[in-house]
Amino acid sequence: MYWFEIVLNMKIFNRFLICMASLLAYPQSSLATISTCVVPDDQTPVSEGCIRFAALDAWLHSPSLHDELGNLRDDVLVKFKPGVYRPVTPFTIDRLVTGSGRHKLVLAGAGATQTLFSGARPLRFNPVPAALLKKKNLPPNLVVASLREAGILEVPKFSDKRFGRADMPELELFYRGARMPIARWPNAGYARTGSVETIAGAAVFKVKGRDVAIYQSEQDLRVGGYFMHDWADEKLPVRGIDSAGRISFTGTQPTFGVAADRRVFFENALIDIDVPGEWHIDQSSGLVYFLPPNPIQVNEVQVSQVVNGLVLKGGVNVEVRDLGFEAFRDQGILLENVDNVILRNLIVRNVGTHGISVFGVNSLIEGVEINNTGATGINLVGGDRKTLQPGLLVVRQCVITQVGRLQKTYTPAVGLGGVGNIVEDSVLRGGPHSAIIFHGNDHQIRRNLIENFVEETDDAGAIYTGRDWTERGTVIEKNLIRNIGSAGLHYGAHAIYLDDQASGIIVRSNLIANAGRGVFIGGGRDNTVSDNIFANCSNGVYLDARGIGLAKHDPQANQDYVNKMREVGASSPLYTSRYPGLAKLLEDDPGAPKNNVVDRNLFMNCDLPYIIRPGENGISVTKSVIVNNTEKVLIDGAKVSAIPELLTVLRGKGRVLRPAEAMKVVD
């Protein structure tokens, strides 16, 4: 392993040089600073020396701040006073403000809970007419508000929430800062589909346990759920319900079709408002019906209106700190084509899609809290896959909780794309599907606490990648991954899922506890799994040979992988020197699992340490031990920082596996 340590140290040194070059290119201090303070638009009177938020854009673009080349004349500090800022449109800063980045722009609040940007607008509610309450058998304290009266003249329509496709953001309702659930049946969990038929090429189906005829007069009704696979959720508008109780969709069909006995729910039916907090929107009239948990005070109920919070387009050398962002229909913060941006000590919550998205290079997200997102917590995309130039986008010491509220699958706490990006020293907690999904090369996922994921889905992993032979070099190390999966799964939940021939990944020194399978290698090659602790898993490491099976059924099954190799130039010296396993891959039985190394792992209370099916020649298993179940207290009390020491302690207590308990080869 000595040669590998040299290579790794060289990579770290190269990253250090890149970071130093970035610091020299974008100086962090100067002799003078231009500054202003900003107050919310509704503040009266304006503090001395401050400007209202509505005047900030003109101030930032003013000629007095810029030289003849369009660059900032000096460092600029914008100090936001405490209060709630309600932008009419996304707060946008572009390259015309920052220029080349020679000087720094700082946007600073008084604290993430004190200086808050909100995309919500208050609604004024009135009692629902008694005749409607009686006709629909609705709760007596139901109230109604007009979006148009609140200034929302264009009511956003529901969009099809399709698997793997971006959704248009929608309105959400908030009461005293907490998101309220749209009317739903069942109120919790799911119903099940009954019989399914195909009529004129479209699926129609029944639902068990509900007389769906009650929905025939409902407007803007949607049905959602897992129509075919438990890893693919969708939500689509209902076209109608016929006399036989069969439900049909409006045009768009579920991506994978509809099967019987699948999990579904109905959404946005007025007659389903039966729990305090539920609400319904009539999109044609712009009326919102709400069942308040308590009597409503002024401005206590708000609806999200503005699409995005903060948008940086082409920004260079910018720091954003000590601010909060909430209740935006789409994203809290969106960074596009940025360089050297720092986001620090922020709170992002209750947004409709992603908390933060970063497309760019050399940027840091540090000490940020993200909670209750409709989709992903943080998206990082940076670096060049053809040149393997790293993006150096870093998530550090962040806390991301409860993601995937509206889009439940493939919307992780953190998504990584590109080359050379990092997630470290962070807490990722709570989600229906994955915690981290990565694609690309040379990422670092290290020293994170990852817990309570795959809570609703199946055939998924807390850390996931797949479907590309070239996306190599990522290191997953020293993470504590625990409590992955839920009861009743068919395919299972995995702590680390290297799906569909993912190759060249290093998994080392992780503690994995209370998961279905610890590491699942789905037919890939050149993966290394070493010095990990697996506790309370059905299997520690699982390997299959799915690439061979696919090729038997379809000779072109792996052609997509070959095409991806061509797209990035994986046969070039750049790739083959970095990843030697690619050099002769196409001549070496492509699709077969090979050269996987599983070394020096520890197992406690796993049904079987290893399952191999049927690629026993594609893996080398060595030097692993079993530790006694009495060491459970050490596992349960472990902290991320203690994993290296815990490995040493448990290895000293372990014994070598006997052949009968070590491995099972399944045909």
Uncertain runs are 1-13, 15-32
Q: Beta fraction of the residues?
A: 35-45%
Secondary-structure class:
mainly beta
SS elements, strand count: 55
Write down the Rg: 27 Å
Mean pLDDT: 92
Assign an overall shape: globular
Main sheet overview:
40 strands, mixed
Discrete helix count: 10
DSSP helix fraction: 10-25%
Intertermini distance? 33 Å
In short:
Helices cover 13% and strands 38% of the residues.
What does it look like?
The strands form 4 sheets. The chain has a 40-stranded mixed sheet that branches. The chain has a 6-stranded antiparallel beta barrel with strand order 14-15-18-17-16-19. With 667 residues, the chain is mostly beta strands. The chain is globular and about 75 Å long. Helix content is 13%, strand content 38%. It starts with a helix and ends with a strand. The protein has 10 helices and 55 strands.
